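Assess this one:
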Amino acid sequence: MGRLLSYLAVFLMTYSFYVVFSGATSLFTLVLGSVGSLVVAVLVKNLLVSRKLKISDIRRLAYLVLYYAYYMTVAEVRAHVDIAKIVLSRKMKISPAIVKVPYYVETSYGMTLIAGSITNTPGTVVVQVDTNRKHFYVHWLTARVFEPARAREEISAVFENYSQKIFG
């Protein structure tokens, strides 16, 4: 069962990327994409999946897809609109500051996902990570709060919530 789930996961990820990035809509292109994705899954499964997958891994994969959808449709759009308002306004309403933002995930993968998400969101960038004390130091273009717990709520709480569900 685990081997089949591994092949299925690689197939679904490959096929999803094919459909999204090619814009495939006709039956022919969808079938062609599924055949190509099946071939890719058979050829590269051992390179991409190092262990047998379990049902719980499929749940984590679903959270990863939900996170990607949230990040690209909500977080990024909201941040770009905020930055556009700042740039286009006559009065620069910025209050740049470096704030300390705690994180609570246990894995380095989770910490990296959160730091990358903060940095890729316009208006914020992680300038330092203190892994001993589990804090990010974030340059925030429009700092509204300075207490670490409140800064976490404003900047990274949603990212961390997804990170915990994806990486445990």
Observations:
- The chain is about 65% helix and 10% strand.
